[in-house]
Amino acid sequence: MRSSPGDSGAPRILLSGNIMEKTDIPPLLIVGCGTWSPWFENWDAFVAKVSGGELEEHGLKAPAASVIPGTERRRAPLPVKLAIEASTQACAAASMDPAQLPSVFVSGLGDTQLTDYMCRTLASENKALSPTRFHNSVHNAAAGYWTISVGCMRSSNSLAGYGVSMPMALLEAAVQANSEQSPMLITFYDAPVAPVLQPLLHNRHAFALALVVTPTSALDAAEDSKALGTLRLSSGAGTSSWPKLGLPAPLKECYETNPAARSLLLAELLIHKNKDNPVTVPLSNGTHMALEIS
Amino acid sequence: MLFRLMDIRVITYESTSAAGINVSELRRAIDTRQSGLRRNDLPGSSIDTWIGKVPGLEEIELGHWQSRNNALADLAYRQGELEATVEALKTQVGSHRVGVVMGSSTSSIDRTEQAYTELDDGSLAEKYRQAQVHNPDGPALFVAERAGITGPAVTINTACSSSAKAFATAARWLTTGIVDVVLAGGVDTLCLSVLHGFHSLQLVSSNPCKPLDRNRDGINLGEAAGYALLIDADSNPELADQFRNVSPGASVSLRGYGESSDAHHMSHPHPEGAGARSAMLGALATAKLDPGEIGYVNLHGTSSRANDLIEGKQVADLFPSARASSTKAWMGHTLGAAGITEAIICIDALHRDLAPGTLNLDELDDGLELNTSPENTEIPLKYALTNSFGFGGNNCSLLFEKHLR
Prior knowledge:
The structure holds 2 protein chains of 2 kinds.
Chain A: E1 22-36, H1 43-50, H2 70-75, H3 78-93, E2 103-106, H4 112-122, H5 131-136, H6 141-150, E3 156-160, H7 165-179, E4 184-190, E5 207-215, H8 221-225, E6 229-237, H9 249-257, H10 264-272, E7 279-282, E8 287-293
Chain B: E1 8-17, H1 23-32, E2 38-39, E3 50-52, H2 68-77, H3 82-93, E4 98-103, H4 109-117, H5 138-147, E5 153-156, H6 162-176, E6 181-188, H7 192-200, E7 221-222, E8 224-232, H8 237-242, E9 250-261, H9 274-287, E10 296-298, H10 305-318, E11 323-325, H11 328-331, H12 338-352, E12 354-355, E13 377-378, E14 383-390, E15 394-404
Parallel strand pairs in B: 3-7, 4-5, 4-6, 10-11, 10-14
Antiparallel strand pairs in B: 1-8, 1-9, 2-3, 6-8, 9-15, 12-13, 14-15
Helix pairs in contact in B: 2-5, 6-12
């Protein structure tokens, strides 16, 4: 079976298969990054906190997600706001027009609060559902609100990859960026799980991280130099466990239980870089992904 | 935009819906113009509508994978040559070189609904403690397990465009060399969430649906599962030829796809069909084809007032000479499985040189000048296009080509 979101990380880099058999994906530049969690409201705050600051909660229940127009924002559920906040930050950091970016959104667990609402209502005598909450319950609600809010008519994807949501979305976006020679927005987001489902899907934390990536050939040299890092990915035979990260306690739990927060690995590599020393993460029952940011 | 032409060979394919448990039965339903729709008798639902229900799913036992959605995915996987072909390909290339891309709208929420009717002091009863079922990636998790596939597996959940987009993702994985084979598909089952949800949006008809008809008054929901086994014939020509197509005289390939967003509304289509048009043009552009070369267009054609008029106008404008139809009256709108179901209808239309008609059509909408009819048409076909549009304004068009040997 694929590793579940609740699995704790074993020692890193254990390859059981033939590591020679791998597929390299052409490198991508990371040109923008955004993030939100109960402990940091943006990328700069994240960098400050993991570099030795105190990891205290800022007290906000949800991000502003101010790019969503007012009426719609009041209707937008937490996972949508998480995704849109991180996406907006990443596009701004990349100085890219969000309307021009194809996107890949991924949530490993979906909107379990809405699942809980719908299933409770449907288990009751009066089964009438709110039309707004019904259309908000689609897994691509974040992609929908995003494209509507920023006027983006490009392709938008919405994936679910359970415990391997992070590497699956990264793979999807990298493959699309290269095969279509286009910059891409990748947004990882997951919200706390409704109490009834929490014994199964353990996540208790809100977390989102978004990256804007672009094929190296799509930018000129001047643009290249402004990049936050170069991302090299390959997929290969043999599975892997998750690397352990030296994170403060609540963030460590978030990394291990929130499928989107597996992207904290990318954040760590963006700060510390791991040139020529790829880390491996599970991609499926029989494959892994190797990741390097330089 | 892709820089090289794609030739993603469809090795074999299967479909299960109310119109038939497999492709042979689907053909028979199309030929005899027999709809699979029936009055709503889904347990627990009193909504006055018609549904496309697959019989026998209740009898399929899957242990800790149990859900109606997984039962339907399992039933479809057992049809035709599919399982045997997957097994042979796994032996040839290794199970880790086979990928799974599933599309679904509701995944196994049918099971979560059921679990909530039997909560034990507010907690899930023991038999419902199925983490791998109660999550949106359930379909790919189950299919990878069922088929013994260990390569990358993912579920695309973009509502009703989900399993059309599965083809686009599969094509990119194959041309990039992530895997040698992709089992692409989709599955969505009838459940209370969708019946009551679409009812809350006043989109459900109390009559058998009449796509494109001037008197259409809403959709009928259905359930379906389907799969297409795909190989990139450019990078893997020997493998593609070795695993010959189900039809001895010809082969069919995915030649283009177009993906777009409406940027308009969560549940209403763009009023001018801008996103729909962009998806169709995208599919033509990747295939480097002119609209005039397309012989058959399978519309999303849900039988909703808004969709059929908006989409129908764009199809009529772009493809005035193509035969066009909506096949939703055979099995209902199967949501996340509509993309695979209608891709298979197109692939089969190419193999058979038979364009299905628009079942239940009496009088075409006054606003449409579409080349469609209720009757099936025997006509030589080389290229066919299918549309799938979903909530959130998520659009996908697929373009298939038949090569004669």
